# Entry
Amino acid sequence: MPTIEPSFRLGLIGTGIVGDLHLRAARNLPQVTVGAVCDIRADAARSMAEEAGATAYTSHREMLARERLDGVIITSPHNLHAEMTVDAAGAGVHVLVEKPMATTVADCTAMIEACAAAGVTLAVGHVLRFSAHAHQAAALLASGELGPVHAINHRRTAHYERGSRPDWFFDPVVAGGGIVMNVGTHGLDRIQWLGAGEVESVHAHLWKRGGLDIETDAIGVVGLSSGVKASFLFTSAGLPFTDETVVICERGSLRWSATEGTFVSEGGTERQIAPGGDHPVAAFTEQLADFADACTTGRPPLVGGDYGRSVVAAVLAIYESAGHGRPETVGSALLRSTA
Ligand SMILES: NC(=O)c1ccc[n+]([C@@H]2O[C@H](COP(=O)([O-])OP(=O)(O)OC[C@H]3O[C@@H](n4cnc5c(N)ncnc54)[C@H](O)[C@@H]3O)[C@@H](O)[C@H]2O)c1
# Structure
């Protein structure tokens, strides 16, 4: 096999659970090399840098000033995404930022504007788009075999008790919210993608378990710009792991379960079209390949800043609706948050 010289020099900001997945993805791509790694935890930065053959930093600003990087991947706590993206753009470095893009719409807009002004790519890590099984589901819906989509139901479980994830996820300021802002952004991405529209209206109810300051459970309905209606349940109620979306179409339905696989039902019988259990590193690898290619060629990434902002706007409208107990439109929630 011909050897491909690395041509895309990457910096990783954040060496936690997801930082590690991005490093493993980078190793799968001969055109990408990880040149620098940053984490405020010096030991963690050093350890990942050693593994990657990269230089370790504890300040992202110092890393950006000293290194010649093509792109950075930002996997820090949610409320740091905006500042780090704007700093990277200021240094002329392309950005792939983890979901949720930021904790406010104003921050998302600042990130989009900073990257546009600097002429750098901004991609948002809605990694689901790069899952092979997700593509099969979306392709089947696009083929028209099942007719138009009418409604979507999404259910997702996640642990939300202290100790189940790093502490900052339980801080409403740092995380920007609880299960909806964190795990729900994957579900809202699925709903928007499969429903072919952006969330326009929401009616949601949230609750908290275990004396936490962030919501641990949420249930609600959303209306999409395509006319599709969707319901969601994000819960920490201790059910067996579930990550399942059912898409109700005119002539049948599609059931996409992360664990069981993807199924099509027509006339009362269900047939499997894809197995469950996508390997996460494979999707992260596809995502990074898309990012590096977008940066190199100048084409837009598959998931850009405007889309990332639409997901954050939907989350914030869910919080507004749950706060006053009535339906809410994304537009008026945004107006209120900027007033
Ligand atoms: N795409 C996915 O499937 C997926 C899955 C889980 C988490 N995430 C997202 O990835 C991001 C990180 O989540 P995680 O689970 O890896 O969290 P984590 O806590 O394991 O990692 C975050 C890292 O950021 C570091 N950090 C904090 N402040 C910093 C600073 N100022 N400079 C540099 N480093 C700093 C922390 O020390 C930590 O190592 C979040 O946005 C999260 O929502 C995405």
Residues 106 and 336 are 12 Å apart (CA to CA). The longest helix spans residues 305-324. The chain has a mean pLDDT of 95. The longest strand covers residues 149-157.
